[in-house]
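retry 2 of 3: previous attempt timed out while embedding alpha-D-glucopyranose. Reduced batch size to 1 and resubmitted. Inputs unchanged:
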Amino acid sequence: MADQALHSILEQMTLDEKIAQFMQLATPFFEGAEEEGEITGPMAEMGITEEIVRNSGSVLGASGAKEVRNIQEAHLRNNRLGIPLLIMADIVHGFKTIFPVPLAIGCSWDMELAEKSSEIAAREASISGVHVTFAPMVDLVRDPRWGRVMESTGEDPFLNSEFARAFVKGFQGKNLAEDTDRVAACVKHFAAYGAAEGGRDYNTVDMSERQLREMYLPAYKAALDEGCEMVMTAFNTVDGIPASGNKKLVRDLLRDEWGFDGILISDWGAVKELIPHGVADGEKEAAEKAMKAGVDIEMMTTCYVQHLKELVEGGSVSEELIDEAVLRILTLKKKLGLFEHPHRGADEKREQEVIMSEEHRDAARELAVKSCVLLKNDKVLPLQAGKKIALIGPFAQNGDILGPWAWKGSREKAVQLYEGIAKRAGLESLSSAKGCDVAGGTEEELKEALALAEEAEVVILALGESSEMSGEAGSRSDIRLPEVQRELLAAISKLGKPTVVVLFNGRPLDLTEVSHRADAVLEAWFPGTEGGHAIADLLYGFENPSGRLTMSFPHNVGQVPVYYNCFNTGRPQGAPDAQERYVSQYLDIPNEALYPFGYGLSYSSFTYEEPVLSNKTLKAGETIDVTVRITNTSEREGEETVQLYVRDLSGEVVRPLKELKDFVKLTFKPGETKEVNFTLREEQLRYHHSDLQFASDPGEFIVFVGPNSAEVKEQSFTLVK
Ligand code: GLC
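retry 2 succeeded.
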């Protein structure tokens, strides 16, 4: 459809019809809906009229080829100009084949697999009638008390940007009109939602614009540079103004400075929430502020449809602002080919053939293997088949391993840990007992578990959080395992048996006690549909762990926030002239994380020689080659994620102790040595100055190379202008 055709539709639209395009409603409001749609936010009394539904622009949470076709057909019958609906839903890490949660995918450091996971998610969703997914979520996170860290890929802006690009590529492909197995992506939550004070969801976010641009904005920009079609505004304030009414953040930065001319959708109710935030005295002012800020679609509240007409007729809001927003919505419908093919990829026959196919499940299993992180292994893993195993814990036989954003994923179809281990160990070697629930238990359950453990040669403890304990509105002030699980671990560890803890959780936990009591700890996160198979493959050595953390694990919640790319302070602990007491430290725990960014063990072992630089000085436009010889000193083939960090020793503003600038994943045969090469460029040394100029400064730098952010070898170099 040509652009002028869109303009001619716009010219025919009444003001009411234009404004109704801004209304996004959940499925239950629509004729043809079979079941309740996705309800992920507070449902206020909506005051919706038939006319509003007839003219609304998009649906939230519909899926299923039959249902979506029914909804679209009914809508096209009722809509005067035959403008099709956009069908939008949260497909964050899988549609029905559920992949590990994004914080786990982040630990794979594997962009190809990340892209593949979102391509498969898009295919399953599009076949089921979905046009747009509310993903990727690229919020940078540093506070594990926040329940939504599981949706993020972690604490580093460079790595988050790489994943943002990979997910958008997978969701959208190259041409949304032609490739109906893809969906439009919607990067979220703009901006800096992950910096909620106290890790308490929806709480205040307040930071300098320089910090915002340096750490929190890069991944959104990367998603948009990759062509992401939509942006979702966050619930939180940014510099004192809620994102959905923040003209400086949205219209000035996102639209004018970055040139984003796609659709901006508010998060659920976020337009109306300008009122409780205290920046709008009512829905009319909320509507005015959000529209002037640049929000096109209002999700699940009705400030726009109730008040925009009056604001336009009263001259407070110009109709060209309305027309711009309508055109952005019509343009995405055109890009998706909906005017010609309103049902797009919805196909009941293909739903049966493609969804949860073996190919899709194999991809989920592969990514789950790559996403698990081996945190500790005192020579108990890999396990030998035939050993008597007692599998104990609330996640021994539990399908709640998909995470809080699995929506259409089926817990019943998830491979539980018991099933996976039975396949690898043999049923005759395996006994199992719950020992306790996630957050409660009985003496009998404990006794039964201890009895099994007594009889076993190895105990596998499957512990963790239920999916309700993280995700949206899932903030926790105590990030340890629930007490009953800690008691189970304490009782089991007293038996003196080799004890392996497998963790199912959505955040970095305080694992201080677990790390002392267990002989091995495998962080499995919420591993998705194929979790049981993937974990068993790792425990029994059919796969070699390769995951590396992308979010630091604190010693305890009192240490939060702890992250690798922190500043040195004026009184750094451990400096040559540091005093005993008057330095930046805690009296009771180390400053370093319990498990740092980039950390993860494998069944192989690697040695790194000193990095060699091709030059000790770097000029703009030139490069320095950084070469490191790495040897697999074990008997086992293994994959290593070699990480390159840089430190600017003296900037115009303080600069982080380390910044990840590159990495490479390489497989080494037993005994194999490889020369790993990186190329350093001046562009990688640029940062936001106090005047927000993005540039590098001449001076001394250190380059670090290592298996994680804490164990590195270094060389210095000088940047000269
Ligand atoms: C929720 C979430 C957002 C999601 C939206 C629609 O409140 O904050 O991530 O996409 O509502 O379900």
